[in-house]
Design a protein that fits this description.
The chain is of the alpha+beta class. It has 2 domains: about 300 residues, Periplasmic binding protein-like II (D-Maltodextrin-Binding Protein, domain 2), CATH 3.40.190.10; about 220 residues, Dipeptide-binding Protein, Domain 3 (Dipeptide-binding Protein, domain 3). The chain has 14 helices and 23 strands.
């Protein structure tokens, strides 16, 4: 998921993800009222229920472009969406060494032998915030809506997993042939286009959240999140969103989560839109809010003075995509130029000077903690200015030259200015002219999806703990027009990713993904990895406790308590 990714309302996922098995052969639960039979987390001790938290740091620069789960592609908006909606499955991380995909709104699910047919039994008694029952048809309604050609968002390529999804997205079919909703028997059956052993993880993602009947009466589906959206999560909207704030209040009809939590703890969570990270942080220090994001360069002071989430290893990548179709940087003739850019960037300097060493220098896109991860896949990610100069000379010797500076794009107001300034200086030092090109934050990612990327900042947080969430979602040909801002389309890469997604053996699957990532990083240089993330929220620990951020970047807003 784009950071201006992803998913579980639970915490504690770390290197133990290597033990994750994503094939479920009848993951069931009891009927005691808990969401699943998984071990229940101990209730947070201390603190008070009720009250309000005001967040200043989630929305920076501009209000969110989308809060609709069918359209959103950023982690910031997902902070809200994940509180408004629940999906079929979630991640139980009560044992960090053995996280599991478990039923959430589904009470059980199972796959057939080759993982082509998935059957979800929907729990009785689940409701939307307006009292409408959550039924199998609530999910099929949402999926049909989100796969309509004229509505589909950046994540719509995920419907390619489902039989008939490709045709529906292309406009040659009117329904998803592989989706059957049986409300009488509370069963949702999903037939996939190809075997996919990780579909239970994907089925819990925002694109697949249920929708109430109210969406059927909309003249324009893209107006859903402009009004009083109806969801089935721990919170509901108190009022329609504005350009200055988003206000959530407890949804008393929420069915609870997989850890046994029955209701949101705080009465109210208000997300304020701030001008930029420094403005938000200064307002936080002045007592105008209760949480914010830590600005670049102020990590140490934040950690010394306040509660932070800096100790959380995030399953996410901070990188810059390179548009393979842009004549100034893309194509085979510019391969040496892309190699030079990669070698010229001093990642350690960026991490130290901008982020106070709070992140990890990356050696690829896929981060540690994702099953199949392998360190050191990138041949050109090590700082090597001499090697960069030699590559530039070789590129020029082949008859190439710059017609103007390379535009390095980023979403302004979100703390990337100093990163790009260092990159511009690094490139200049090896003979490559570049210029910072800030863009409005609200429309930044949707613009990139439409092909505007040249050399563009593109952070990503895992939506679920799978290697394909990085390789398929970001660089497969299916994701062009969505999250594939590089417009990367290498046949061998695509083939390896497709084979890996259908492979049940985890060791073989990991090797296939490693091979694919090497092509991306070395043979084509379709992306410039810089850093892997850590948590970056700051909060008032004198007023609040149990402020947790997951390894997917999500804050558990519904479990925060007042002191």
């Amino acid at each position: 998921m784009r950071e201006p990714r992803t998913r579980s309302r639970l915490v504690g996922i770390a290197a133990g993800l290597f033990a994750l098995s994503l094939i479920a052969a009848a993951c069931s639960s009891d009927d005691s009222g808990n969401k699943s039979s998984a071990t229940t987390e101990k209730a947070a001790t201390g603190g008070k229920t009720g009250g309000e938290l005001v967040d200043l740091g989630t929305f920076l620069g501009d209000p969110p472009e989308f809060l609709d789960p069918g359209l959103n592609s950023t982690l910031n908006s997902y902070q809200v969406i994940n509180e408004l909606y629940d999906g079929l499955t979630d991640i139980d991380a009560s044992d960090p060494a053995n996280p599991k995909i478990v039923p959430l709104v589904a009470k059980s699910y199972e796959a057939n032998a080759d993982a082509t047919v998935w059957t979800f039994k929907i729990r009785d008694g689940e409701q939307f915030s307006n009292g409408e029952p959550v039924l199998p048809s609530s999910f099929s309604r949402a999926w049909e809506r989100a796969s309509n050609k004229d509505f589909a968002g950046d994540y719509s390529y995920l419907f390619n997993f489902i039989k008939g999804g490709k045709e529906k997205l292309a406009g040659t079919a009117t329904t998803l042939a592989g989706v059957k909703a049986d409300d009488a028997n509370m069963t949702l059956t999903v037939t996939l286009a190809k075997p996919y052993s990780n579909f239970d993880a994907v089925a819990g993602f925002q694109l697949f959240f249920p929708m109430p009947k109210a969406v059927d009466s909309l003249k324009d589906q893209k107006e859903w999140d402009k009004g009083l959206m109806i969801g089935n999560g721990p919170y509901k909207l108190a009022q329609p969103r504005t350009d200055t704030d988003i206000v959530l209040v407890r949804n008393d009809k929420w069915g609870g989560d997989v850890m046994g939590h029955k209701k949101a703890i705080l009465d109210k969570v208000t997300f304020k839109v701030s001008k930029d990270t420094d403005t938000a942080y200064n307002a936080f220090e002045a007592g105008e809010g209760d949480s914010a994001n830590i600005p670049p360069g102020r990590v140490k002071e934040a950690d010394q003075n306040y509660g932070t989430t800096l100790d959380v290893n995030i399953l996410g990548s901070y990188h810059f995509d390179i548009n393979q179709k842009d004549p100034s940087v893309g194509g085979a003739k510019n391969l040496k130029l892309r190699q030079a850019i990669d070698m010229a960037i001093n990642r350690s300097e960026i991490n130290t000077a901008v982020f106070n060493g709070s992140r990890t220098v990356s050696t690829g896109v896929t981060p540690p903690g994702i099953p199949g991860f392998k360190k050191g896949l990138c041949d050109y990610c090590k700082y090597d200015p001499q090697g960069a100069k030699a590559a530039v000379d070789e590129w020029k010797a082949a008859g190439n030259s710059q017609s103007g500076p390379i535009k390095i794009q980023f979403n302004q107001g979100s703390g990337h200015e100093n990163v790009v300034a260092i990159m511009v200086d690094n490139l200049k030092a090896v003979g490559i002219q570049a210029v910072a090109d800030p863009k409005p934050a609200e429309t930044y990612f949707s613009s990139l999806a439409k092909g505007s990327c040249v050399l563009c900042r593109a952070g990503w947080f895992a939506d679920y703990p799978t290697y394909d969430n990085f390789m398929y979602d970001l660089f497969h040909k299916d994701a062009i027009g969505g999250n594939n801002y590089s417009q990367f389309d290498d046949p061998k890469f695509n083939s390896l990713v497709d084979e890996a997604k259908q492979t049940v053996d985890k060791a073989k699957q990991g090797d296939l993904f490693n091979q694919a990532e090497k092509i991306l990083l070395n043979d084509d240089v379709g992306v410039i990895p810089l850093l892997w993330y850590r948590g970056a929220y700051v909060y008032n620990e004198k007023k609040f406790t149990n402020f947790q951020q997951t390894n997917f970047g999500l804050v558990l807003w519904d479990q925060i308590r007042r002191k």
